[in-house]
Amino acid sequence: MSRRFRIIRRVNEDTIWAGVPMRAPYGLEIIENCVTCPHREERIFCNLSPDAVQDLSTITSASAYPKGATLFMEGQAVRGVFIVCNGSVKLSTSSADGKTLIVRIADPGEVLGLAATVTGKQYELTADVIEPAQANFIARGDFLAFLEKYGEVALRVAQQMGEIYHAAVAEMRSIGLSHSAGEKLARFLLDWCAGHGNQKEEPRATLTMTHEEIAQIIGSSRETVTRLFTDFKKKRYLNVEGSALIIRNKSALEKLAGTAV
Amino acid sequence: MSRRFRIIRRVNEDTIWAGVPMRAPYGLEIIENCVTCPHREERIFCNLSPDAVQDLSTITSASAYPKGATLFMEGQAVRGVFIVCNGSVKLSTSSADGKTLIVRIADPGEVLGLAATVTGKQYELTADVIEPAQANFIARGDFLAFLEKYGEVALRVAQQMGEIYHAAVAEMRSIGLSHSAGEKLARFLLDWCAGHGNQKEEPRATLTMTHEEIAQIIGSSRETVTRLFTDFKKKRYLNVEGSALIIRNKSALEKLAGTAV
DNA sequence: ATTCCAGCGTGACCTGCATCACGCAGGAAC
DNA sequence: GTTCCTGCGTGATGCAGGTCACGCTGGAAT
Predict the structure, then answer these.
(1) With an 8 Å Cβ cutoff, are A161 and B162 in contact?
(2) How far is CA A174 from CA A168, A194, B36, B182, in A?
(3) Phi and psi dihedrals of A83, rounded to 5?
(4) Which residue of A161, B1, B87, B102 could cross-link B161, Cys pair, CB 3.0 to 4.6 Å?
């Protein structure tokens, strides 16, 4: 089991993996190509005309990445886009002194490195795999040629970038306009349950992140997140059972988040 | 001079102007249409194939807006895009309690409302004119049809959205990762001079914003900005002469901003 | 001249949260 | 078993900066 990956560089004590690592199965559903992908219909970028999908499959190269792998790093010269087939990928940026801000968590169907690829700049974020993922890589040149050939795709790209921008603005609002860390945490938890769990009276979702990561998302410190969690539990706003998060008093959290009417 | 504009709504004591107000000159260079626009070559969206520009001119409607006018508001149903020909427009978002965060200042050549228009969501920001501006409006339906017809334009749109996203990420970094207000102000001033002034040893630029607005950009309070300015002046980092800002110790500011090597 | 108001300058106060500093538990490696 | 190491819980401390409060100034309106 040793030396499965080639370690190309060490930064900040974290291991960075080569761009195109192994293709070994990781106990996850393997998607051979986009034509036969079972999720094709429901995903914004996979659901294209048959011609386009066929063409697409000739320029993509699929790979599987283990937890902890890095697809690309902030500041690297752009190589191309990664289409996430499954798993989940964390997109973050960090300052010189090691502080990290997680911008968003990408779910299956999203295209990473889009902004950098179309503008030709460096990657503006770092993409780390947090749940074992499969992703299709498309080199910048191929991708741009593909866009030129299929105008419909360029429109899709613009749409997806619109979504991403929308999310970014929401994030800025949350970080920039809130008064307290509690407000931000409440908002984050509600958002998370809205996107990753059921929507009953008492929303429930699995939360695999560490307190540290949550802190990096809401722009706070690990200790503060821990304290807030115990506080919320004490006030019976929520329960944590293993990795399951149950919101027991949604309206109280909404009031804290400033979302309530 | 009264009743030049139709007041359609009052929000937060500010006057909101109708979407397509008067066409009176405001002492600024009037741009009749994109075909004859003197800046056509240098601007990302104006510089298209002759056919496209011709088509474009049939669906755009030009208007001039006075200082204080609002092109669109956060949460409004999307109507279409505004191409800024000259002047400058402030894009902001605000919370329920009145706090405002200025996301960016749009300069001539930029297309506003792009993300909302391609995704079909609501406008995610509010656009206020801060320097008398001319802008071309294109209704959403026309714009999307135009994009479908000219694949090249869709690519341009994607590119511009890439730029905007890039800027948004930079803004998030600045707000989310910095430790002090001084750090953010220093970064803002350096950025501003880089984009709006000469680049000599002692960068100099005109800064027309109030302390309040700067506070809203860097996510701080008016008093803090004032205090920091006096502090910076005292330390001889900069000078303010009227609306002119002169940076006298660039490296000190860079060190503060964490930009220095 | 007078009024008005937006924008700036400054002092006083006080609180939220970052930071440091530990201890503890559970899993992995050997 | 022992040794690590990661992630969580919690106390003590300090201070940056938000907030309130007030005064001053210069320009616009009348």
Answers:
(1) yes
(2) 10, 16, 43, 21
(3) -95, 120
(4) A161
pLDDT for B123 equals 97
> Cα A135 to chain center, whole Å?
12
The kind and range of the H/E element at A228 are helix A222-234
Q: How many CB atoms lie within 10 A of CB A167?
A: 15
**Contact (CB, 8 A) for B69 and B17:** yes
**CB atoms B169 and A93 under 8 Å:** yes
| Chain B interface includes A162 (CB < 8 A) | yes
List, for residues B126-177, the tens digit of each pLDDT value. Answer: 999 998 888 999 999 999 999 988 888 888 899 999 999 999 999 999 999 9
Distance CA B135, CA B127 (A): 12
Cα separation values, B76 from B90, B102, B121, Å: 17, 18, 9
* Residues whose CB is less than 8 angstroms from the CB of residue A111 and which lie 6 or more positions away in sequence, other chains included: A45, A81, A82, A83, A84, A157, A160
The amino acid sitting at A68 is G
Bridge partner list, A81 = A138
Contact A64, A127 (CB under 8 A): no
Of A7-21, A160-174, B127-141, the range with the lowest mean pLDDT is: A7-21
Nearest to B203 by CA among B175, B235, B232, B238: B238
- Residue B188 to residue B176: CA distance in whole angstroms: 14
- The integer distance in angstroms from the CA atom of A181 to the C1' atom of C16 is 9
Q: Amino acid identity of A125?
A: L
Report the 10 Å Cβ neighbour count for A205.
19
pLDDT over 60 (residue A151): yes
Model confidence over A39-50: pLDDT tens digits? 554 555 656 777
Contact status of B75 with chain A (Cβ, < 8 Å):
no
Give distance CA A232 / C1' C20 (Å): 25
d(CA B20, CA B62): 9
Average pLDDT across chain B, whole number = 82
Nearest to A97 by CA among B124, B246, B257, B71: B257
pTM of the entire predicted model: 0.85
- Residue B85 contacts by C-beta under 8 Å, 6 or more apart in sequence? B31, B37, B39, B62, B108, B133, B134, B135, B136
User: What span, in angstroms and rounded, lies between the C-alpha atoms of B77 and A48?
Assistant: 28
The larger pLDDT score, comparing residue B20 to residue B228, is at: B228
